TrEMBL record:
Homodecamer; pentamer of dimers. It comes from Desulfocicer vacuolatum DSM 3385. Its EC number is 2.1.2.11. GO terms for cellular component: cytoplasm. It is found in: Cytoplasm. The gene is panB. This is 3-methyl-2-oxobutanoate hydroxymethyltransferase. The active site is at E179. Keywords: Cytoplasm, Magnesium, Metal-binding, Methyltransferase, Pantothenate biosynthesis, Transferase. CDD domains: KPHMT-like.
């Protein structure tokens, strides 16, 4: 199987095939996710929360994003790798946005970038796409605007969401993430757009789905939003392994002779 491209994603939407996506932040997990046959891996700035243990995504820097993105691209054979542009890496000028987007491809080997916002960031999407860099848009609940939204809240303004979706498509986005919006609105947007929609907390009618890997695998024991289904309980498996190790060492049951050099 060959590398997934923007063209293969368009083709999947045309054929009504669901697009699968997850986040990953490092080499071993990206290996597992890529080997699963997934189409898209997002190196999300959610790493600020699930890897760095911060309150929200705002403090994540370009250097941190590039560091993690490079680990992920090194692991991926087929999945498209999307680098998530962190807060304040694309807001202050178009030059800054294009330079930083370019770094994801030049320095970290990503195939595309993602940035948050609708109509308000269309000039940025245009500038980045004009540089030959595939851009994924992200509308609805946009975590980098947590303070402006007054918290992580479901977004319900249908007219605004539809307008944002249409405008990011016109601006040249190859795909759009729909986060935290009611299912019927996501369905209407998905039908109205020619580019694939990737949903998270946006119901079943999107062209594809994405979740935060550490949430859906149950790696952390943090509170999970309503839309997350835990497909595994890695935290419990790891906790059990750690408990067994400590008990074995304390009782002198590890290492036995099979783990010794003679
Ligand atoms: O940072 C992230 O993980 C994201 C996805 C949840 C879409 O932006
Ligand atoms: Na993000």
């Amino acid at each position: 199987t060959s590398k997934i491209t923007t063209t293969s994603l368009f083709q999947m939407k045309k054929e009504g095939k669901k697009i699968t996506a997850l986040t990953a932040y490092d080499y071993p997990f990206a290996r597992m996710v890529d080997a699963s046959g997934i189409e898209m891996i997002l190196v999300g700035d959610s790493l600020g929360m699930v890897v760095q243990g911060k309150e929200n995504t705002l403090p994540v820097t370009m250097d941190e994003m590039l560091y993690h993105t490079a680990m992920v691209t090194r692991a991926c054979e087929t999945a498209m790798v999307v680098g998530d542009m962190p807060f304040m890496s694309y807001q202050s000028s178009l030059d800054q946005a294009v330079d930083n987007a370019g770094r994801f491809l030049k320095e970290a080997g990503a195939g595309a970038v993602k940035l948050e916002g609708g109509a308000d960031v269309c000039d940025v999407i245009k500038a980045v796409a004009s540089a030959g860099i595939p851009v994924q848009a992200h509308i609805g609940l946009t975590p980098q605007s947590v303070h402006q939204m007054g918290g992580f809240k479901v977004q319900r303004d249908e007219d605004r969401l539809m307008a944002d979706a249409m405008e990011v498509q016109s601006a040249g986005a190859f795909s759009v993430v729909l986060e935290g919006i009611p299912s019927p609105i996501a369905e209407k947007i998905t039908k109205a757009l020619t580019i694939p929609t990737i949903g998270i907390g946006a119901g079943a009618h999107c062209d594809g789905q994405i979740l935060v890997l550490h949430d859906m695998l149950g790696i952390n024991d943090r509170h999970l939003p309503k839309f997350v289904k835990k497909f595994a309980d890695v935290h419990a498996v790891a906790a059990k392994g750690l408990e067994d190790y400590l008990n074995a060492v304390r009782k002198g049951e590890f290492p036995t002779s099979e783990f010794e050099y003679k």
